Amino acid sequence: MRRGAFAVALLGLMLLAGCFGPSTASWGTGSDSVEVDFDRASTSFTSTLGLEPSSMDDLQAVGCSPGEEDLGTNKTQAIKFTGYLAASQIYEAHTDQVNGIGLAVTTSVAIHAMPFKQAAETIEGEGSRVDLKDWNDPMNPQTGAGSVDLDEIDADEDSRWYILGLIPTTENIQDGMLSLGEWHQAVTVRGYLVSSNASNAYGYHSIQTVSDDCTLDVGNQNREQLYVMVTGIELDGSSVTANGEADDEWVHGDVPILGRTGFILMFFIVGVGGAVGAFILSKMFVLKGARDTMKVLLGQVGMDNIKKVKQDVKKAKSTGLASPATRQAEQRSKAQKELPKSAKKPQESALAGFDLDSILSNDDSDASPVISSSRGSSVVVTEAAQEMESSVSNQASSVSSPTPSPSPVWDAPKRSSSAPTSVVSTQPEPEPRGHFSSVAPTRSADPEPKPPQKKKTVRKRKAAAKPVEEEPEPYKAPAAQEKETFQDEDDFSDFSF
Prior knowledge:
497 residues
């Protein structure tokens, strides 16, 4: 599984080759940019690639003439540097180690000098390999273990090398410098050397010579370190020109053989088309599997019946018949359209929980409710409740008064006797039993009544007065004894105990 994912990722990177590349300095006078006004007689440049902006004027271009070995400022032909591109360094900015004309260099290259055809036929892995560690100074790359150590090349070396600091002469050349970011390819750089008044100046033209086709010869030290004002670059299958109007002009993001347009078309055809094709194919496989499973479960007879039902349904639809589900849906939609729009319900009370006001307001009783005067309460007091409260308060006030109010006395009927007697009973008659709600403790013979209990509102009854013994008299009717009565025999509204 991991190998498959790695292969897919590798294929994706191969498809995206050419769309990404290293960043380089900008063209112009802004930050991290360079601008060159090229003229073979007098060239000037302005650079902000260093710590501070820098500029130089009156740089003279050194060219060649076909068939002549010597170089000079009066020569009009550009010099060629051909070979196998082993390493390169593209600069966005320079460090403090670079100054002078080095601030105009935007790319440095290390080219193994050889014919272009031989370089193009070099198999990947068999060419020179450079282990690049540091390349801050455009003329002095610091390399490590590899097939070639560039900073150790001398007269004893078998190979010949160009170490070039490239200065763009136009904006299109500056953009085309990105093509040199790909190592191990055949390349030819065309340009002019920079003249110097001092002899053997570092990086400037001195005693170099060229071959008949204006290809620079490598000296006895097998290494040429030079500044070059570039006017063109040739690659295998493409080129970079000063005006950018060549038929095979290299463009950033260009893909060999296919080109940018071909790559985009291939991406849409292979990528998008392949995804759509894979989806359709997978859907066909799923449907085929479902049909096979249905055939196993239902059998051939069931499949034939299903096909017949489908045919009948199609036939019914063609004749204008609708299924019950469709008819019900149509009826529901029609009914919903015919229904009038219901008025909005009034907003309910914002109070949460139990709303006693709304419940009592819907009461159908005859008693009109009276709203309590307390502001934070929602209790409703009716007239019946008010009457009951007043009666209870009256009873409580009557009980709590110091002098009890006189209650009516019940007179016992006179008894008839055949013989007169003078005997008078000294025992009080038994107390009459009352309702269970009026039961109260018997009061003592003390003429002054006891104070009523505060927590109870039961009405007290008067105890019968103890009769006083008198001397026998002639026949008289027995004295009427007081009977205890209720203050209000018909009032049973108070049931508190």
